[in-house]
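Q: what sequence does this backbone want?
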């Protein structure tokens, strides 16, 4: 998805823009990112995300 008018989107969201992302970060301990960023982090040996995915916490 490509956002063409972010300011318009924020205005239409009526104060709720960014709340799901903030809640995700609070619960998971890291910010929501693009799928490519997620894949890069998951591939890094010894990374927190790599350990989380493999079950080695």
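A:
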């Amino acid at each position: 998805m490509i956002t063409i008018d972010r300011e318009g989107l924020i205005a239409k969201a009526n104060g709720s823009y960014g709340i799901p992302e903030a809640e995700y970060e609070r619960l998971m301990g890291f910010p929501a990112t693009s799928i490519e960023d997620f894949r890069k982090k998951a591939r890094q040996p010894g990374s927190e995300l790599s350990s989380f995915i493999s079950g080695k916490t």
